[in-house]
Description:
The protein is of the alpha/beta class. Helix content is 31%, strand content 27%. It has eight helices and eleven strands. The protein has helices at residues 2-24, 48-61, 78-82, 98-109, 118-122, 129-135, 232-245, 264-267, and strands at residues 35-42, 65-69, 86-92, 113-117, 137-141, 146-153, 167-173, 176-179, 184-190, 203-212, 215-220. β3, α4 and β4 form a beta-alpha-beta unit. The termini are far apart. It binds zinc ion. Zinc ion (ZN) binds next to α5.
Amino acid sequence: MFKKLYVFVLFILITSQTLWAQQDFKDLPTLKNKHILMVWGGWEGHKPKEFTDRVAKWLSSQGANVLIFDTLSVYTDSLLLAKQDLIIQYHTMGSITKDQNKGLLTAVKNGIGIAGCHGGLGDSFRQETHYQYMVGGQWVEHPGGKINYKVDITNQNDPVTAGLKDFDIQDTEQYFMHVDPNVKVLATTTFNDEFDSWIKGAVMPVSWKKYYGKGRVFYLSIGHNPKDFDNASAWALLTRGIAWASDSRKGPTEKWLSPLYPSHTKLK
Length: 268
Ligand SMILES: [Zn+2]
């Protein structure tokens, strides 16, 4: 009797978790058979290899074909890039050659997606303004260093964030960024006056999506340490964003421009 009950409870648990997982990726493209290029390097303090291995393991479990490079020279291989659906880059600071940067930007413009987080995408090559034009933002400060803060999900209509709830995240960096005011913001955070009094109440995007040419761009500012993604909500944001960005070549082109400032027409 008890054995039967145990089996039944186990069955319910497994099915509900499967349903939950499907619900989690509702209206998002599949990663099955997608070709994904992961590139890591730069500042070691961000543990870029550990981050890459963690995401690669999940991508493989979703049926994606993953290639991993620890050098930016792969960006000059246009034939290889043309076969990929998505680049996931974790490369903080450092520098990129003109040819590598051109190869990367051309590939995204032609329809490969790009996704990433924290300094791995949003603080990569500080000298390259055209790279920042593609990403849509650049890190400038993280007041207080590693702190606890709240993330607000501000867009419930987009499949990347639909159904996600606001959440708290601990012992990590709250990124203050210079952001393109036209990106489609999915989540924000609000600064207090504990470290820098003059930014009390400043609202900053934590995650956004945009296009660069035909390529989909997804960014998330969480991710100072791979352990940030032990937080289920942070992991959901990252993985859902990756799924969306992987579909540049096959999915429809979405309207993404969300101009933040009133136009001259409206001011008249
Ligand atoms: Zn960091």
